[in-house]
Amino acid sequence: MTPHRPALRRLVLPAFAALSLFSALPAHALGRLSDIQVIDRDSGETLPVYQHRGEHWVAGRPGARYAVALRNATHGRVLGVVSVDGVNVVSGETAAWHQTGYVLSPGQRYEITGWRKSDAEVAAFHFTAAPASYAARTGRPAQVGVIGVAVFREKTPPPPVIAPQPEPYSQSYPSRERLSDAESAADFKGRAEAAGAPAPAASADSANAMAREAAPALRRMAPASPAPRLGTGHGEREGSWVGHTSFERRSERPDELIRIRYDSRENLIAMGILPTTAVPPRPNPFPGAPHPGYAPDPY
Q1: What CA–CA distance (Å, rounded) separates 189 from 106?
Q2: In the predicted model, what is the mean pLDDT of residues 97-116?
Q3: What is the mean pLDDT of residues 254-266?
């Protein structure tokens, strides 16, 4: 099927992890292979990214709809497996690297606006109190407050096999010895090709080891905050069309991992991630109407 937008594909490999990096990053985008941005869809603002203690943060507005924007910065196709609050945004499964995601062509940009419900519809992302998040409502509240993107390059197809050129025509037929030599050469060639075949996929034990390796990073929780933490809700249905395509990953491990944490501005200020910007209002000595008059009695 010809994709209308970046397409979906299920492949194999487990675990979700993320790579994360008191100042706003000017570009508001993260990633080397794929630029990742968080967009406030109600205001149209690209949320500034703040760096704090090796992690990236954005400040969400409670109630606002948002999108996770991906742009392929490479010259080949990439697959982005995206999770919000530890949940795969396409399948709704507890997020793992091997799951379905969005395939982007070189230079292509796509905004993921919600939890995918079908090829034509999503349930909009919106910032909400953590207990009302989709993850919490489906019994998975532990990872609320984090967006993750695992980026995979596409496997390059092997070069075409060039057929050997036939020997010049000869009137004489090969002897039995020559036939035996040719058969032996063909057999050796077959064994050599088999020896150069790609290694089999990693076993379940290897995959589980990678999942355990990533687990400590996922268990880190945000410091105490004065207000309820933000999560991502399961909002109203809206149109969002995709197609399907095949995609073979170059490696079982992601080529790039991006982790963005989010919470309300008030909580980021309370945690020291954002500076306190509140300034007492400056009083106006002449705030009233421009027409002169006399002082009335108080009511």
Answers
A1: 38
A2: 96
A3: 95
pLDDT, mean over the chain: 76
Rounded Cα–Cα distance for residues 101 and 61 (Å): 26
Cα gap 182→245, rounded to integer Å: 43
Question: pLDDT above 90 covers what percent of the chain?
Answer: 55
Q: Report pTM.
A: 0.64
- In sequence order, what DSSP letters do the residues of the chain get, joined into one string? ---SSSEEE-------------EEETT--B-SSEEEEEEETTT-PBPPEEEETTEEEEEEPTT-BEEEEEEE-SSS-EEEEEEETTEETTT-SBP-TTS-EEEE-TT-EEEE-EEEEETTEEEEEEEEEGGGSHHHHTT--TTTTEEEEEEEEBPPPPPPPPPPPPPPP-SSPPPHHHHHHHHHHHHHHHHHHHHTSPPPPPPHHHHHHHHHHHHHHHT--PPP-SSPPEEEEEEEEEE----B----BS-SS-SEEEEEEEEEHHHHHHTTSS-----PPPPPS--S-SS---PPPP-
Calpha distance 268→270 (Å, rounded): 5
Determine the pLDDT at residue 294. Answer: 77
Q: Which residues have C-beta within 8 Å of that of residue 100, sequence separation ≥ 6? A: 8, 9, 10, 81, 88, 90, 91
Give CA–CA dist 110/174, Å, rounded. Answer: 63
Which two structure tokens, joined as six digits, stand for 287? 């705030």
Q: Write the single-letter amino acid at 286.
A: F
